[in-house]
Amino acid sequence: MSESELVSADVLRARSRDLEALSVPGNLFTLHEGTMRCSACAHRCVLDEGSGGACKIRIRRGDELRVPFGYVARRYVRPVETNTLYHVRPGASALTFGMYGCDLRCPYCHNFKVSQALRDPVAGGPVQVVTAEALVDDAVRAGCGVVCAAYNEPMLTAEWAHAVFSRARARGLVTALVTDGHSTPEAVEFMRPVTDVFRVDLKGFTEAQYRSLGGRLQPVMDSIALAKELGYWVEVVTLVVPGFNDDARGLRFLCDAIRAVDPAIPWHLNAFQPRYRMADRPAMGSGALFQYASSAYARGLSFVYVGNVTSDTFSTTRCPACHTSVVERHDWQAVKVNVVDGCCPACGFRLPGLW
Ligand code: SF4
């Protein structure tokens, strides 16, 4: 190891030690004849004493699994649409919070400072110690209609999200997971009683693509289907990255897979922006995205959106029955909401979503 690698390893070890002080016993794991297996994500890591699994944040101590609790590494109050959520209380403010850690290692991550904080010494930053009650109090005081767990992978910190969401629900707020979907049935089921929304990234269409990000495609597909079956409101986002997943045939495959679960699931095609380890790539152009979105409509999806580029056409929600514009958006904000009791004001069609 070089000197700089040793310093980096020391930085990460110190970060991990500091965070373990902000942990509690978790419950998403099994213990059988001394073998502990975490079930918070699809890696299903076997954990040895002191080991933190692939995410490095859920740590075995004896027969306990210590999990992150009682802090946030990032929090903002912003329009709910900034979480790429278009059918959930449009125009509402959302308090969105995140912790540290991720099960994947996407080289284009928008939130690498929190998601990769336990792997990459250039990531990280201060955390804020907070109780679930105080976080929800802040959301209510700020007039939020929604609380979102996002930025890092919230299923890795499901016990904390569960504590926040149960209190948020009791105060009348909609609760939303913004997840990579690389999850387990246990975690998806664990969160359902306190969670309304499963906003999931579908990052690629082959196992090879997912392997390059550190995960697998099939658990993501399974989580989307299960979330729908359990009654979550589901929206799917695909960040289209040039040279990685901008293949028309592959995107048609994703479109058909979503349609097979439910054609009313909104699908967001967001344009890649140069970031993190892919800062030298060009941004995704809008023309191709418009074509992919048009093709997805033609193949039977009811709601397809394009994000990170300017488009009135593909940021507006239209009634699938009569094509009346029901929500208009600009720059990740709803500027006109024309939904009456969850229905189209022109023809009365019940619009899928949480209005
Ligand atoms: S959350 Fe996933 S990566 Fe982390 S320890 Fe559990 S199974 Fe492993």
Topology of helices and strands:
Layout: H1 3-20, E1 23-25, E2 29-32, E3 35-38, E4 46-47, E5 59-61, E6 64-68, E7 71-72, E8 74-79, E9 93-98, H2 112-115, E10 128-129, H3 132-141, E11 146-149, H4 158-170, E12 174-179, H5 185-191, E13 197-201, H6 207-213, H7 217-230, E14 233-240, H8 248-261, E15 267-271, H9 286-298, E16 304-307, E17 317-318, E18 325-330, E19 333-337
Parallel strand pairs: 9-11, 11-12, 12-13, 13-14, 14-15, 15-16
Antiparallel strand pairs: 1-6, 2-3, 3-4, 5-6, 7-10, 8-9, 17-18, 18-19
The chain binds iron/sulfur cluster.
Iron/sulfur cluster is lined by residues 38, 40-41, 43-45, 53-55, 58, 103, 156.
Description:
This protein has 355 residues and is α/β, with parallel strands linked by helices. The chain folds into two domains: 3-67, no CATH class; 71-315, Aldolase class I (TIM Barrel, Alpha-Beta Barrel), CATH 3.20.20.70. The chain has nine helices and 19 strands. A hairpin with a 2-residue loop joins β18 and β19. The longest helix is centred in the first third of the chain and has 18 residues, at 3-20. The termini are far apart. The mean pLDDT is 94. Bound molecules: iron/sulfur cluster.
